[in-house]
Amino acid sequence: MKKLYALIALVVVVVFASCSTSSQGTTSGSSSQDARNQKRAEQKQEEAEYDEANYQIAMKALTDKEFVLEADQLMSRFGRVLYVNSTTNFVMVNKDKATVQIAANNFIAGPNGVGGITVDGTVSDVKTKIDKKGNVDFSFAVQGIGISAQVYITMTHGSNTAQATVYPNFNSNNVTLSGNIVTLGETSTFKGRTIF
Question: pTM, whole model, 2 decimals?
Answer without folding.
Answer: 0.76
